[in-house]
Structures are given as structure tokens and as C-alpha cells.
Amino acid sequence: MRIVPARDGGLARLRLAGGVLSAHAARAVARAAREHGSGVIEVTNRANLQLRGIRDDAHAALIDIALDAGLGPSTASGDDIRNVMLSPLASDETRALATQIIDAMQADTPLHALSPKFALQLDAGERLAMLDHPHDLWLCAFDDGARFAFGFAGTMRQRPSGAIHRNDVVTFVSSVLRRFLALATLEEHRMRDLLARIGIGRFLEAFDFDASIQNWRREPADASLRLGAHAQPYRTTWYAGAQTPLGRLDAATLEALADIADTQAEGRLTMTPWQSVLIPGIAAHDAHEVLRRLHALGLATDTHEPLARLIACAGSEGCAKSHADTKADAHRLAALLPSHDEGAVHLSGCERSCAAAHPVPVTLYAVAPGRYDLHRDARTVARNLTIEEAAERLARSHADA
Predict the structure, then answer these.
(1) What is the spatial distance between Cα 238 and Cα 287, in angstroms, rounded to a whole number?
(2) How far apart are the C-alpha atoms of 127 and 90, rounded to whole Å?
(3) CB 271 within 8 A of CB 239
(4) What is the distance between the alpha carbons of residues 194 and 184, in angstroms, rounded to a whole number?
(5) Which residues of 95-225 form beta strands (DSSP E)?
(6) Which of 335, 234, 223 is nearest to 276 (CA)?
(7) pTM for this model (two decimals)
(8) N or C: which end of the chain has fewer CB within 10 A?
(9) CA–CA dist 275, 97 (Å, integer)
């Protein structure tokens, strides 16, 4: 388990296999957050979890809790490379393939030299999928799952580099990662860094693949399906989804989610790259009651709710680089935004935009406590606004749209 320093104490990162967290493991995470940290639990934009405010003497205890809950790697040095993103609605078949990839990566010790930020995406064309995160390697099924398109250093909205057969996926991934490590310099930690120097053509020289699918494109996805209750693909059950307030939960809320999963579903939660949570395996007649319980916990279950479309980084309470308390400011902004708007708004404490790995139409960059520059589609449209002035600007732009 990696614990990194932050202004509010240690930050412990827990990688989840495909975002899945059993009810038992959720209670263990809640206990760890309460006993060894500040009690704050964050859902990340890679569908993992972070525990904040971890004490200096808690590392060993946290590792024991994670291992007992089944959240650890299969090899001691293999934790950092378990970065494989799936759709929250991935089928059992897709999850099994992801497990094979991760197992192969962990068993191949030289691959443990990869950067903790090196990331993969495995997709089967689900309607709920994050298509805008840039990944070092992505693969997307087509031909009814018989083949996978692949691409490097980008998103699944881009043109693929080629295609491989399903039976070759695990071997292909391992070969790509080995070749990256063989060609990359010590300063090149991500695929984009290497390809900027050597080009895609040279990198692909070592592989056999079908290059005739240049015009293939992944079908569009619908991010709104992360919220509300919907029939579950591949199953006869339903799922219910809700947005965590600015990506954060406290220990009591995570325990309550575990109770819902145990009593009205199949005993597991699924975290999403939108920093939300899904509860799968609900009987259709229980779906409305589960949504009611989620809303009672303070989670947003509809895209019209302001907290369903606000993103904020840790802010000045948790990060020394932040110019403002973005979490507190985002809660203030939520109370001022019109409920009928569905556009996402990102509050960033500095220019790094850590909280949003995917493009967001509107970003407020902090320049001082409580004051922000407003950017729309990467263009500055106003400077040094208060939260109230920013809310007025956003409401006016929505009315003019």
C-alpha cells in the first residue's frame, strides 16, 4: 500500500479490482479510516479509494486490514501496477479477462518497474464507460467480443492503432509493457513520453496485428447511467447509482452503503471513475427503496442535482499547492447553482487539475482564497471571481444557451 504525505496527514491509496468492493471489505475500509485516519474516504477518478489523514504509525496496521479484506496484491511489489480500468457495468467475462491481465502483470517481476501512474483500460462496449480518461494502453472489444481494438497514450474516442484476437490479449498486454520498459529512458514514465520521442511506427514494429480497422470507432457512452436505478446488463437484476459529495464519504456512510448492499442487493459496491458508487444485484421491486436510502445518506441520485455535477480537488486543507479550500467553496457553489442545469463544473486549487482526468467544460481555477478564474472550454472568460459571482456567471450562461 502506498502512503504519500499530504497537508492533512498521510494519504493511503487502495486499488480496487474493477472498482468492486465487497460489503465486508467496505466495513474494513471504514474501520481503517476511523481508527487510523481522519475518517475521510475518497473515491478517485480511477474508481479506487483513498484514506486521508493517516497517522505516521499506521502503515503496518493498514496493510493488515487491506490484506484481511482481500484488497492487497498477489505479490508484495505488485500493488502499484494494478491500474486496469473497467466499466462499472462490466460483465463477469470482462472482469475475468481483467483479472488474467493483472495476474500476469503481477507475476512478471520486471513489470513492477512501471510508474504507479501507468494505466490500462479494458472495455467491452458498455453504455456506461469513461471514454475520456487518457490511458497508456486501451483495448475495446468488437466483433461480438472476438477481437479487441487497441490504442496508446490516449482515449477510446481516438483512432485505434490496430486489433488483436481475444485469445491474444493477455500476451499482447505483457509484450507491450515489456517493450515500453525496454525502450523508455529513466525520465519517460508514461507511454506518451516514449512515443513523443520514437513515434508509434517504431514501437509497433515488434507486434503482429490487424491494421485494417483505422475507421473503427467505439460506440458513444452515457455517463448519466451512473445515477438512478436501471436494469442491469447481462442480468435479471437492477442496479442503483449515486454521486458521492465531491468524491468523499465518511466511515459511517461507507458502512451504511455496505448495509444496503447486504440487505437489498448482492453484497458488493462498485466505485466509478466519476467518483460515484453503484450497488448492483437489486431486485426490481427494491430499486426505488434503495434510491431512497442512498438519497437519505446525502448522495445525489439524479443528474439535475448540483452535487452530481461538481468536481473539486482536495483543496488547501489537504494540499499545499492549492490556493483555496475548493471543497468548502464547491459546497457553497452547489447551493447557488440552478438545479435544471446538467453541465459539469470543476474547481481546481491550482493549474494542475488533479481531480479531473477527463475534460470538463467549465473549470474554476483558484487564484486566492475564495476567488477563481473561470475557464470555459479551456478559454479564460472571467478572472478573480468570488463564488457568488461565478455562480451568477454560470447561471447566466445557461440561460443564454
Answers:
(1) 7
(2) 10
(3) no
(4) 6
(5) 120-123, 135-142, 147-154, 162-165
(6) 223
(7) 0.94
(8) C
(9) 24
The domains found in the chain, sorted by start residue, are 2-73+246-301 (3.90.480.20), 91-125+131-204 (no CATH), 308-400 (3.30.413.10)
Secondary structure element (H or E) that encloses residue 397, with its range: helix 387-400
Residue 313 cell numbers, joined: 480537488
What is the grid cell recorded at 244?
458521492
pLDDT (mean) for 46-58: 95
User: In the prediction, which pLDDT does 358 show?
Assistant: 80
DSSP 8-state code for residue 87: -
Dist CA 353 CA 371 (whole Å):
16
Grid cell in block for residue 131: 471514454
Q: Which residue has the cell 480500468?
A: 85
CA 397 – CA 338 distance, rounded (Å): 11
pLDDT digits (tens, 9 = 90+) for 117-130: 999 999 999 999 99
What is the radius of gyration, based on Cα positions, of the chain?
21
**Any bridge partners for residue 148, and if so which?**
141, 164
Q: Residues 319-357: pLDDT tens digits?
A: 999 999 999 999 999 999 987 666 899 999 999 988 887
